[in-house]
Structure to design on (341 residues):
């Protein structure tokens, strides 16, 4: 590593091979009749999870007796991804929480089996840090696909405290992980509740008593959108908005115009996410002169809606819903008066 490590007293800097046995898996996803049926912990299982345990739905494959002996997963093992399409997305670790009989480490992965001087959870957490992401990214070889050699992995310098201190650190991190996991489950539950409530409110509304209507308790009528509450109407969107400003494909950059120096951000579809505008995404800053020249169709203001008309770049996890955001004056960098591209 390029930076100098500050080593606390009692800690050591050792190559990774000092504290783990290392093996690149050759167990593929193919099914061979002359081999034993096993379950396979594959690349996506490791990439998507900090922990590997029995809750994961492992795929079925086959392996030889030698492969089973060598790559069957044990409690405290660590697996890392040794191959990737990007050098900055390689060496991703996952910790094996429990013994997993007949579950094997799959292809494109490296199995790290801790020796007596190393705690697996501590090791996995250390390899997850930015220090090792940069290290693996710099030493990954390839042009279109990237890989970590056995030599690079073996010689990775590890900052190792004594085993008892590793375990204390690992325990603290495990408690933190459990808290995060519980919070994420609660957030997911609240989101599902919100989705259900939004559906009821936007399709049934509320009556004069503040209760959600239903066809069982209130009068409904047929419409081109199906049953709707009596008193509701179906209108074309064009009748409900005063103006549409379409800036698709016509940005200053695409037309070869200079942005100049300024502080006016230009938003793209990347900035428009579900219900919000993400100002942390990359934006281009333009000058006042460019702003006045470009915004001839009209300017966004608080209450306007930004709607992506092409690929939903701002919504990776919801490809079936187009990203929409409301322009709001509450943002530190208001969308009011900003060119949108």
């Amino acid at each position: 590593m390029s930076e100098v490590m500050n080593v606390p007293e009692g800690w050591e800097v050792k190559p990774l091979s000092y504290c783990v046995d290392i093996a690149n898996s050759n167990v593929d996803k193919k099914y061979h009749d002359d081999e034993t049926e096993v379950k396979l912990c594959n690349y996506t299982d490791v990439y998507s999870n900090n922990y590997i345990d029995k809750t994961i739905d492992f795929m079925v494959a086959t392996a030889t007796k030698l492969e089973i002996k060598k790559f069957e997963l044990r409690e405290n093992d660590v697996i890392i991804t040794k191959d990737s399409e990007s050098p900055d997305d390689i060496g991703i670790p996952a910790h094996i929480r429990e013994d997993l009989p007949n579950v094997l480490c799959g292809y494109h992965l490296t199995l790290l089996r801790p020796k007596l001087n190393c705690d697996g959870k501590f090791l996995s957490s250390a390899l997850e840090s930015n220090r090792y992401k940069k290290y693996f990214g710099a030493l990954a070889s390839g042009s279109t696909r990237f890989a970590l050699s056995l030599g690079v992995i073996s010689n990775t310098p590890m900052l190792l405290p004594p085993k008892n201190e590793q375990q204390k650190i690992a325990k603290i991190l495990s408690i933190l992980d459990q808290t995060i996991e519980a919070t994420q489950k609660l957030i997911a539950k609240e989101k599902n509740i919100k989705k259900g409530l939004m559906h009821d409110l936007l399709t049934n509304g509320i009556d004069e008593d503040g209760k959600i209507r239903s066809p069982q308790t209130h009068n409904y009528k047929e419409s081109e959108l199906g049953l709707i509450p009596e008193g509701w109407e179906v209108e074309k969107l064009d009748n409900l908005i005063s103006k549409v400003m379409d800036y698709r494909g016509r940005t200053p950059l695409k037309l070869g115009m200079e942005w100049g120096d300024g502080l006016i951000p230009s938003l793209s579809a990347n900035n428009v996410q579900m219900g919000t505008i993400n100002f942390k995404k990359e934006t281009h800053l333009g000058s006042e002169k460019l702003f006045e020249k470009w915004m001839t169709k009209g300017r966004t203001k608080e209450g306007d809606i930004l709607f992506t008309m092409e690929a939903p770049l701002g919504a990776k996890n919801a490809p079936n819903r187009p990203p929409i955001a409301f322009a709001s004056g509450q943002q530190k960098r208001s969308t009011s008066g900003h060119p949108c591209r």
Notes: Residues 12-161 form a domain with the Adenine-n6-DNA-methyltransferase TaqI; Chain A, domain 2 fold (CATH 3.90.220.20). Residues 311 and 322 are 8 Å apart (CA to CA).
